[in-house]
Design a protein that fits this description.
This protein is of the alpha/beta class and 250 residues long. Helix content is 37%, strand content 17%.
Length: 250
């Protein structure tokens, strides 16, 4: 069993990893809106480099209100045009990245940048979309709960109430798989972007059920990749776009 998260459009690296035998668990963020290292991605392709550079500067500075104002000004009077262009680019991005998974044994859930229904529809035959349920993989009970914390109201974001409800369906598991980390500073805070992305609901589930392992992604540059909460080993298996590597369990 191998795990990755934060693919963000790294199709060729994904193809290489998916070609190996055995189950591959993908914990969300399949497509690449903005690579904050280079500013490449769907936003640049559709809205242009100048806009993306300004947006990234504001978001990394924590200027969420100003970033929202920039977007509203940019799209004023061309909402339908931009909506169509983004929808086409997003669908093409999913088709590209899913081409890497043909024939592979895949279990996938969604992250904050994903469109869950489109992700589910574009998965190839044999790949399984899993969210809010537990499945048996290699003799282990593995629970999945997708989605990122609410920030800018994307389709891939879920509230803490929604996350808590999904986790409640799992019951005790051997392995917990989410996109988001638990709300522990060393795991949830990106040392570059400075934003905390952890979930209190995930943290509570770990405290209550103590799965042997918790795998997640979302935070690209965390303070710590591995942490222990009681008897649970928490491990960030993400930023696949940068690493190109899968994590083997255990």
């Amino acid at each position: 069993m191998r795990l990755i998260a934060d693919v963000h459009g790294a199709t060729e690296a994904l193809r290489r990893v998916a070609s190996h035998p055995g189950p591959l668990l993908i914990l969300g963020d399949f497509i690449n809106f903005i690579d904050y290292r280079t500013n490449d991605g769907i936003v640049t392709d559709v809205s242009g480099r100048e806009f993306t550079d300004k947006m990234v500067a504001l978001r990394t500075a924590g200027e969420a209100v100003a970033a929202g104002a920039l977007w509203n000004e940019f799209r004023k009077g061309r909402e339908d045009e931009l909506r169509t262009a983004y929808n086409r680019a997003i669908e093409a991005a999913y088709e590209d990245v899913m081409s890497a998974l043909d024939g592979a044994e895949v279990y996938a859930t969604f992250g904050n940048v994903d469109r869950p229904e489109l992700l589910k529809a574009k998965l190839p035959a044999g790949a399984r979309f899993v969210d809010g349920e537990a499945v048996d993989i290699e003799g282990l009970r593995v629970g999945f709960a997708g989605g990122g914390i609410v920030s800018i109201n994307t389709p891939g974001e879920v509230s803490e109430t929604e996350m808590e409800a999904k986790l409640s369906h799992l019951g005790p598991v051997d392995i917990l798989c989410t996109h988001v980390p638990p709300a522990v500073d060393a795991l949830q805070k990106d040392v570059i972007a400075g934003r905390a992305k952890g979930s209190q609901a995930v943290l509570a589930y770990i405290h209550d059920h103590q799965p042997a392992f918790h795998y997640y992604g979302d935070v690209h540059q965390p303070q710590a990749l591995t942490w222990r909460l009681g008897s649970t080993v928490c491990r960030n298996v993400g930023y696949f776009r940068a690493t190109g590597r899968a994590t083997s369990h255990p």
